[in-house]
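Margin note: ligand = uridine 5'-triphosphate.
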Amino acid sequence: MKTIVVSIGGSVVLSDAADALFLKKLTTLFKKISNEYKLYVVVGGGNISRRYIQLGRELGFDEDTLDLIGIDITRVNARIITNLIGISNKEIPHRTDEAMKLNFSIVVMGGTDSKHSTDLVSAELAEKTHAVRFVNATNVDGIYDKDPNKYKDARQLKEVTIDSLITQYGTTWCAAGKNIFMDEPALEIIKRAKLTTYIVNGKRLDQLERALIGQPFDGTKILV
Ligand code: UTP
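Resulting structure:
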């Protein structure tokens, strides 16, 4: 069976208001996909983790501690998702190697250790499992030529090369709680492992499904 890794942004799981119906639909989609593929779901911490990290930063905590706080939140979100799926692992693994030993058609996990986000965890899993696709389901429709929150004329890119992303963003982790479409160290793995990587809006379940099964979708493909 072929493997897919999907990174679900924490903001897709829980933003300001909880959306139980959406989460039920999301996990139903995962179960449907798992009839055809082995699926790894890596869950992020989103806004909730950023708020805790901001609080910790104001309290003067060091960067490693802020990362650990973020990881805890990703694991809470992963627990929500895995309980809703019901047929996946009950306990959340701490490492990608641990996740790979689990014998479920869907395996759910969150963050692992500091100095990266769950994007890197997902890229690492995709590399180790020789996944056919790495889908990053985030809260924007794709990668833009400039920040769409700042510039009205920002254009969504249908395709972008990994080399141009590395030139623009680098591969070095900056700080806990930073919010970009993909963390910088993950870009290095995508390049090294030549991962077929798609960025899609995780709230748009029709597009997420198309990305997961490798059909044309509204989002951005990273060319490796
Ligand atoms: P996320 O994976 O949620 O980062 O981790 P994100 O980029 O904000 O992703 P979205 O918004 O969910 O898509 C949140 C924070 O937790 C720490 C980092 O500080 C990260 O910024 N973290 C997470 C780690 O240190 N290691 C991990 O493996 C995961």
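The chain has a mean pLDDT of 95.
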